[in-house]
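Weekly structure sync, notes
Attendees: PL (lead), two postdocs, one rotation student
Agenda item 3: pending single-chain targets
PL asked that the sequence for the first pending target be pasted directly into the notes so everyone works from the same version. It is reproduced below exactly as submitted, 109 residues in total.
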Amino acid sequence: MNGRSVLLTQIEEQKLFIAKARKLFVSDMLKYDDYSEIKKEHSTSSEYLKKELNTVTNKLKSIDEQLLLGDRSISNIFQGFSNLDIADKSILLIRFRHPTLISVQAISL
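Predicted structure, written out during the meeting:
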């Protein structure tokens, strides 16, 4: 959770920085070339921070889902089966039928 708040703070700082640069440019205190360079750097940095935030958010959602799945009773153990893709379903079924098969064999089938 701390990583997410750090990223949100960094994104907000980036927004404030570009807003200040924009004000300086409008008031002719910053040259066009300098503003363009700042804007490019902001765009690159902002894009990276947003991707990182998305990654952290997805990981947190995944952890929450796993925690919820951990609370399920044994009778609902296959409830998430329908959310798996075909490759994962086939590997899971092969493991039930032949628990001694190694994962390389299961993946090649």
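Discussion points:
- The helical segments are 2-26, 32-70, 86-97, 103-108.
- The chain has four helices and no strands.
Action: rotation student to compare against the earlier draft before next sync.
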